[in-house]
């Protein structure tokens, strides 16, 4: 996209204004799929920005929210941007990440996830005491922490960019009682009224309560970024205004995750160990072992000619070990160990049908693996059925088994799909994706000024 490129509209009709490095023409609404993110190639012709990053996940936890925030901060550091972070406890040991200060708020563990439980007043006060940022980045707003950040942005006249990452409403529909039972009525702070309200609901009622809260949050933001078209449609179904939504995906570390690792002696030995010294293919899952990930689906693969490996940890680990007694459980892996684990697999299986994106799918594709995933949510945008992997009916575990069996029996198809998947993600690097994000920051700033005029 060059200096004179026209990008699709922000809001309102028939006005044009300068966005630093692009011209934005605001006309009639366009479908989300036509909205292209600003290019990263010219974003840094403008001054460096100061960004307040408010994350609903502690940077000390391993999940998609904290992982994305860390990659964003890494890129900020490379480009000389200024940033400050507010997240739930626990805090980094030295109170910093990559040289950026990290303030933390009280939190409470629910299903091994530290949910922020501050008062909104305390967060708003903290934000107003900090140096005024150019933009407030709110990662996965759902608690009082994210809500307070959006309120502070409104009161200060600072643009806010909200990142939609987790379908908490769907999780609430299926798992709310299991997750909150005995927690909310215990010692969790009494000011967390939204949690108490959800805890007394179930099924569709819980989903509607959380969906309304998500809509409330994202309608307050200057812009909302959804990772896939499916996620954007989900936001609209909650009541988020379509003209607030743009699409922004996630990057993948192609230096860490790549098929060249297969040539390493350590990886070959790992594959041999997992296959039991046989020619049987190794089928693997990578991710949290939590109810919403539906890892128990892998029991449908019992009896196939393969070895099953489960990489990750979480509250369901013991239960899954009993259900899948012949599987190898590695526990949580990071860095090179995680990348080697991907490289030692022959097929990657993603089980959760409620993902807004599916970062492990991208990591598997970057590792040159064919992917089997449910035809629902994020995988619909990430997996090209029959080309980079196979999509199964999320309501039919026999279909899951059939897809895996097809790949087990056809090494050539595995290789072809792995090659196609690698080609599909090779341009999705984190630096490129964060540079696009910064383009959206600038768009949000212009929108803020336009609406204030």
Query: Can you count the helices?
Result: 15
Give the biggest sheet.
Answer: 8 strands, mixed
User: How many strands?
Assistant: 19
What is the H level of CATH, i.e. the homologous superfamily of the largest domain?
Glycogen Phosphorylase B
CATH domain fold name of the largest domain: Rossmann fold
Strand content range? 15-25%
- Overall pLDDT level: 85
What is the 3D shape? globular
Radius of gyration: 22 Å
Work out the helicity level.
25-40%
Spans of at least 5 consecutive residues with low confidence: 1-38, 40-45, 179-185
Based on the structure, what is the oligomeric state of the protein chains? Answer: single chain
Notes on the protein architecture:
The chain is built from 15 helices and 19 strands. The strands form 4 sheets. It has an 8-stranded mixed β-sheet with strand order 6-7-5-4-10-11-12-13, sandwiched between helices. The chain has a 6-stranded parallel β-sheet with strand order 16-15-14-17-18-19, with helices on both faces. Helix 3 (144-156) links the parallel strand 10 and strand 11 (160-163). The chain is of the alpha/beta class. The chain folds into 2 domains: 50-251 and 430-452, 3-Layer(aba) Sandwich (Rossmann fold), CATH 3.40.50.2000; 259-426, Rossmann fold (3-Layer(aba) Sandwich). Helix 2 packs across helix 3 and helix 11 packs across helix 14 (411-425). Residues 63-253 form the Glycosyltransferase subfamily 4-like N-terminal domain. GO terms for molecular function: hexosyltransferase activity. This is Glycosyltransferase family 1 protein. Pfam families: Glyco_trans_1_4 (PF13692), Glyco_transf_4 (PF13439).
